[in-house]
Amino acid sequence: MSLEVRNLEVVRDGFVLKADFALQDNKVLVLLGPSGCGKTTLLRAIAGLEPIKQGEILLKGKRIDALPTEKRHIGFVFQDLALFEQMKVRDNIAYSLQIRRENKAHIKERIDYLAMRFRIDHLLERYPSELSGGERQRVALARALASDPSLILLDEPLSALDAPLRREMRRFMRVQLTQGYLTAIHVTHDVEEAIDLADEIIVMRNGNMIARGTISDLENSPGSGWLARFMNFGLTLHVDAVSRKKGANLVMAHCKAGDILCSAHDTAQSAQIESGASYCVYVPFSSLSALDSKKVLARAPGGILHATIVRCIGILSSTMKLLLSLSGENEQFFEMTLAMGGGILVPKEGSEIELEVDPAKCRLLPEEPRLPKA
Amino acid sequence: MQSGNGSFEQRLGKTEIILSIALIAILSFSLAPLVAFAKNAIVGAGHASLLASLGSISVPVIVRSLQFTLLQAFASTALAIGIGLPGAWLAARFRFPGRRALLALAAVPFCFPPILVILAFILYYGKEGYFSAFLALVMGQKNEYRGLLYSFWGLVLVHAFYNFPIAVHQISALWMRIPESQKEAAKTLGANRIMAFRTGTLPWLLPGIAQAAGLIFLYCFFSFTTVLVFGGRTGSTLEVSIYQALRYQANAGLALLFSVIETGFALLGIWFITGMTQKKQHALRDFGRRRELSSPKGSQRVLLAIYGILLLIFFIGPLVSIVVEAFRVPASLGGASHFGFGNFERLLKGFQAPLLKAIRATLTLSGSAALLATIAGVIAGISVFIGKKAGKLHFTNRIVEALQWLPLAVSPAVFAYGWLFLSPDRTISAALIAAQAVIAWPFVSRAVSASLQSLDPRMREAGRTLGASPLRAFLTIDLRVIAPSVAAAAAFAFSITAGDVNVPLMLGMSEIETLPLLLFRLTAAYRFNEACAAGLVLGLMTGIVFFLKEKAIDVA
Amino acid sequence: MMRRKPLIAIFLGVGAIFFASMSLWGQTQPSAGAGAPELVVWTYDSFVSEWGPAAQIAEGFQKQSGAKVRFVSKGDGGALFSSLLDIAKKPNADIVIGLDDRQLEKALTSDLFAPLKLVNLADIQKDLLLDPSNRLVPFDFGQFAFIWDSESNIEPPRSLEDLTKPIYRKKVIIMDPRTSTPGLGFLAWTQAVYKAGWRDYWKRLSPSILAMTPSWDTGYGLFTKGEAPLVLSYSTSPAYHKAYENTERYKALKFSDGHPQQIEFAGVLSTSQNKLLAQKFVDYLLSQECQSFLPETQWMFPANRSAKLPASFSVVSKYPSVNAKVQDIDRDPSDAANILISSH
């Protein structure tokens, strides 16, 4: 294990953050969550920029939680990058090496290597204010990596960039992190960014880690309706009542939009469900498929959802994106991508479409995430 | 402005013509006295002209005066910054009771005339003052403490205490905007606390410190009343030399020479300040977010308490002693000292009772000067703003922008005598009003153009998209925004003119005695308790601005 | 987004100030009122101070003539003289009180004053009448002397030279020769004693000077507040402390160099619109009535021989006098002041 965070608790102005996780060498962990969830605070606590109330932080097996920031040897890329504006790019990158009193030849060698790797060799003599957004990003990354830290922390460094550049920088960073065998924690509120960068994702909410796993783990069982919506994995339909089916884990959920068969193995007893706690059926987008109108009679076992086509959004050569409104539910809009061809005509806006649900992928979930026991 | 906005452009054209005329008026209003003074000094009118008196000018005297001026200004600035920096740090970092009050102290140098503060310092630090009494109490005996006053360091102390709140206010405002991430970045890269501060905070802080220092330096460079009262034989600033040349040597040529040297150095100072301001703004361009204040902990509380106590003892103490002394009737024949309204009574009832007349004269003269300054300032401020907005920095606009620095670059004596030469019957009161208005209008103009600039242009544009005509948009949006700052600036202009003792002293005005003049005379005659009574009245009058708080401080 | 009420209040305030200005404008204009004639007297600070003679004189003269007198203080005598000679404006007074014998010559060459015909001139000590044209007439006189605080534990000096001794370091207060007549008198004193070597004396004296004040008021105020044990003043000053505080703590020191005399003059400006009334006023100033209260208000000897000296003057002794004039009245005061300033 490269990094271990055990039983960590940070208290700040009444906000409580709790964390407990470990991270393997050469892995990229993404801390994902809405703003104010505590992900940046957690990152800062690991770097020693935020005092911790209790818990342990171990880096390569050594306790670092009592060390001041400058002794932890952790690279940090700030949201505003925090480049030293009064120094040239070269001096920015050399900063940590000069502080460690490395010899001049080594510093030069290291700067040249980083400059080449980050494609900033032509910028070394410039000042940060003379750089573009992407260039500043690369300089900040190079600076954080200069002294070869054993862990690198990235605090939403891409948030200031516009979309195309952000996509490009995301790829660039993934390549750098992979090729450099780096261990990193990346903080973001952008799901797409998390999917692109993460080996593993921890989702945080209100100071708690509510889910953790690879992206497909999370899609398979998001654990709560909230998470499914936050990650945009699928539909979450409020459950009015359930009735048990013959299979041990299968229940029939009765929703306004229709009855849906789903597994309930990761939820509580159906008795509890009936007692009034808020539950929903999670219908991942991947479980939906358009029902061939000719096969209507062959009723799908999982259930059928009726939707109205509000608008056909984008039509590429092979796919089509539909904005749909779910019948029966109040104002549930969602998008679905359909493959083109195979006799499917471009549907008319305003017409109805029937969607078949694959029951194997559907889950009965609590609306709110269940917190780990304190 | 985008093209296709024809009517607006046309209107702007018309406005510009009107404004240009107004600007030329302001221009001549500000520069005419300088020309008149120079002309009279060089050509001479019934007195020694510059050419005639050139031979009698002693170069060492000028050099010494310049040396002293620079030396005291440097020392005062250094001390003011030294006192102000800890305060700036505390105010930028922590939430504590009295924080707003500390920042509001920045109004003191503008609201309370130097003569009042000087009086406070004499009362407090003088040999018989409270501070000396306190020292004697602590030391257990009447020691040989002579008081710091009436020496170079006394002068520096007064200057420093008078100006340090400016440093606190300006530097803390900047400090709050410097993001922590710079310092934290240095730390994550291995820098210790000191090194991180040097890399992450200091480069941003320095231009701000330099700018505040530059401003304080200029104020001290032009120091007059303090030097006149304390300087005695410590030295003579250029400003005092000008005064002496005019009042006691009847030598306008010498005065001109002194003021040209003075202005030369002041321009250097202004150049430095504007440079630093630009540097600061350049650095701050990306820092949007203000830092959150934290509650002080442990040792920080101790520091805060120490700073607070020191301020109370050294700065608030003198100011409070004015109030106490105003009501303490000194011991006289057959009676011990007691508290009461005796001092006020003497000023109101005695022979040629001066107080009511002085209040009236101050209200009349300063009221007129402030009004004149406000009118000129509003016109100048709006025109500077319109010029900037239109993107064409009109020639007159540039001049007006430069003219705003005039009072910081030219001796009030020059304005005063210039206007005296210009006024038909050499009427002192007219010269006084005009000279004080010239000194005060840039404050109004700066406040107006700053508040116009702080207005989000989108608000105006939103008004336009919602159907308001340009004029209506200006009236309903811009004017409403500038109105509070115009009002604050007018009150502020009144404050500085009402507290001004320089121009009346320079003019040798005594037929009409204003409150600061009365205060000066009573202080010089060692009638401290009556001086305090008059000072209290003046302080209440000029302190109006103090109650306008933030707005007024921003103007300052 | 904005609070309207304070705004309105501010505007009202500004408006009120403006209208107050307008309505009061006339009242501050000097001598604007028609009615009874009012004489304007320019004089120095201590003359109009609380314990000075101005109030009594104004009252006495009004009783006699019905005319009002307004006193305007111009600082000390040097400043007063400067105001008369101001480059930018003519003096708008009727009478000037308080020029001294050292300023006399320059004052007379300026043509500022009108010749006077005075009844009471006959009673004035003849040796004080320095202006045969009677444009400036003497009203009191005294001798310069250093006053010593006998409770200060410091040895009293016996001569000007003694003042330069290290024991008097920062113990002496003098007045600025540019702005005050005692300061000018002290300059003349040193010039009379040291002749061409006066500059050198001032340099040697410099360490002893605690303060060089712009006016006698300020200097004497500093002294009585205990800031220094020695101050330049008059041999008559102890009479004040005798009369008001019944103490002989403050003593006028007799110097072996002799003591210069100061004669103070009054005159009527030739620009005055009320010359006859002004002449009457100066006559009153020289009258026995007025002269008899001068000693205990001016703390100087009366110029009128018939005026009696009060009891408090028993503590005043007359010292051997020395004739002292300023060598170059245009340059020397500035030079002397600059010596003190620069040698600091």
UniProtKB/TrEMBL annotation, chain A:
InterPro entries noted in UniProt: AAA+_ATPase (IPR003593), ABC_SmlMolc_Importer (IPR050093), ABC_transporter-like_ATP-bd (IPR003439), ABC_transporter-like_CS (IPR017871), ABC_transpr_FbpC (IPR015853), P-loop_NTPase (IPR027417)
Domain of life according to the entry: Bacteria
Keywords in alphabetical order: ATP-binding, Cell membrane, Hydrolase, Ion transport, Iron, Iron transport, Membrane, Nucleotide-binding, Transport
GO biological process, one term: quaternary ammonium group transport
GO CC annotation terms, alphabetical: membrane
Leader sequence residues: none
Pfam assignment, any one: ABC_tran
GO molecular function list: ABC-type ferric iron transporter activity; ATP binding; ATP hydrolysis activity
UniProt enzyme class: hydrolase
Domain annotation ABC transporter: ranges: 1-231
Keyword GTP-binding attached: no
SMART domains listed in its UniProt record: AAA (SM00382)
Membrane recorded as keyword: yes
The protein's name in its UniProt record: Putative Fe(3+)-transporting ATPase
TrEMBL record, chain B:
A GO CC annotation given for this chain: plasma membrane
Signal peptide positions (record): none
Single biological process term from Gene Ontology: transmembrane transport
A Pfam family assignment: BPD_transp_1
UniProt KW keywords: Cell inner membrane, Cell membrane, Membrane, Transmembrane, Transmembrane helix, Transport
Domain called ABC transmembrane type-1: residue spans: 66-269, 359-549
Source taxon at top rank: Bacteria
Topological type in the membrane: Multi-pass membrane protein
Transmembrane segments: 17-38, 45-63, 69-90, 102-125, 145-168, 204-230, 250-273, 302-324, 365-387, 399-422, 428-452, 528-548
Location in the cell: Cell inner membrane; Cell membrane
Assigned protein family: Belongs to the binding-protein-dependent transport system permease family.
Designated name of the protein: Putative ABC-type transporter, integral membrane subunit
From TrEMBL, chain C:
Manganese in keyword set: no
GO CC aspect terms: outer membrane-bounded periplasmic space
Stored Pfam families: SBP_bac_6 (PF13343)
Keywords, comma-separated and alphabetical: Periplasm, Signal, Transport
A GO biological process held by the record: thiamine transport
Protein localization: Periplasm
Record protein name field: Thiamine-binding periplasmic protein
Organism: uncultured spirochete
Gene behind the chain: thiB
